[in-house]
Amino acid sequence: AAFDAHSGARRGTAGAERAAYASPQRVTLGGREQLFVFDAAGLGGYGPGVGRELWRFPWKTDMGMNSAQPVRVGDSRVFVSSERSNGGVMVEIGEKPQEVWRGRALSARFCSPVLHAGHLFGLSQGRLVCVDAATPT
User: Fold this and answer.
1) C-alpha distances out from residue 129 to 68, 94, 108, 109, 125, Å
2) Helix, strand, coil shares, percent, the chain, to 5
3) Could you tell me which of 119, 124, 118 has the C-alpha nearest to residue 86?
4) CB atoms within 10 A of CB 53
5) Alpha carbons 56 and 21: distance in angstroms, whole number
6) CA 22 → CA 4, 105, 112, 117, 135, distances in Å?
7) 18/7 Cα distance (integer angstroms)
8) Residue 106 Ramachandran class (φ > 0 left, ψ -120 to 50 alpha, else beta)
């Protein structure tokens, strides 16, 4: 939902999936401003304002519990993760999102990972882990 910053009046809504726990994020990928929404069905990109869904990457979890924030990696990629059964995935965002790699080394269920110097750091099953953002090995 979008609201007018001055009046608080609702300006409109977009998306049809159930909400999850991650907060929406305003990002620019490939020179295109958009809003990431990591909802119960996966990650979606929406146009500015009350925009339409630009793309969607499905990411099903137990009870739709997508909690950790997606991490923007470079100009066109994003990392999402959840419980051990799913692990994490690096996605190339374009007209149609494509999986780059998938692994279980970093399964950030609740705490959001951090990108630093080409590496993703995060809690995975209660342990601090680090993975190369280019490959999960």
Assistant:
1) 15, 29, 10, 13, 10
2) 0, 45, 50
3) 124
4) 15
5) 17
6) 22, 21, 9, 24, 24
7) 26
8) beta
Residue pair 86/99 in contact (Cβ under 8 Å)? The answer is no
What's the one-letter identity of residue 115? L
pLDDT in tens, 33-82: 999 999 999 999 998 776 789 999 999 887 778 889 999 999 999 999 98
> Which residue do the tokens 């993975």 mark?
131
Number of alpha carbons in the 13 Å side-chain half-sphere of residue 109: 13
Planar angle of CA 1, 33, 38, nearest 5 degrees = 50
Give the residue carrying structure tokens 């990696």.
Answer: 73
| pTM reported for the whole predicted model | 0.88
Tokens at 21, concatenated: 């726990």
Six-digit token string for 118? 């080409």
Residues in a beta bridge with 38: 43
122 half-sphere exposure, CB direction, 13 A CA radius: 30
